[in-house]
Specification:
It is built from 5 helices and no strands. 5% of the residues are buried. 85% of the residues lie in helices and 0% in strands. The protein is mostly helical.
């Protein structure tokens, strides 16, 4: 491998390591917060002065917090915002990567780029970014036209 390839490998490895450290810290903070919340709920449940209605609400809150091993993932997959974010993220990455390789190949910065194969990737990314916005705009105009 050349020096350039080693530099790219180490750069990517460093970014990956930084991402893993960030995710580990975020998970540690979330776990700590969840533990403190659980302790507070348990202390409130143990208090003999707590009325039955409040006790039932506290138990429901505890049940909602318990997701199980795959419950958190299932809850996220059921959320439409997750899918919308994933759609736009993939579209953005395709647009940036395809457009960058096309531009760098056209300018001669990177040799050996087949522009006819990276152009559709950029176009697909652009379509993924603009199609939901265009559909939302058309729906909004149709509703406005139906009201008048």
């Amino acid at each position: 491998m050349s020096g350039r390839e080693y530099a790219m490998l180490f750069g990517f490895g460093g970014c990956l390591m930084a991402l893993l450290v960030f995710l580990a810290n975020a998970h540690k903070q979330a776990t700590s917060l969840r533990t403190h919340r659980f302790d507070a709920l348990m202390a409130a449940l143990r208090d003999p002065a707590t009325n039955p209605v409040t006790r039932d609400e506290l138990l429901r809150a505890l049940v909602r917090d318990h997701h199980g091993s795959l419950g958190f993932l299932w809850q996220r997959l059921r959320n439409p915002a997750t899918w919308r974010t994933l759609w736009f993220s993939i579209g953005w990455l395709l647009f940036i990567v395809g457009g960058s390789f096309f531009a760098f190949g056209a300018l001669g910065v990177i040799d050996g780029v087949d522009r006819s194969s990276v152009l559709p990737v950029g176009v697909l990314g652009f379509a993924m970014l603009t199609l939901p916005l265009a559909l939302r705009e058309l729906t909004r105009r149709d509703r406005r036209a139906a009201e008048t």
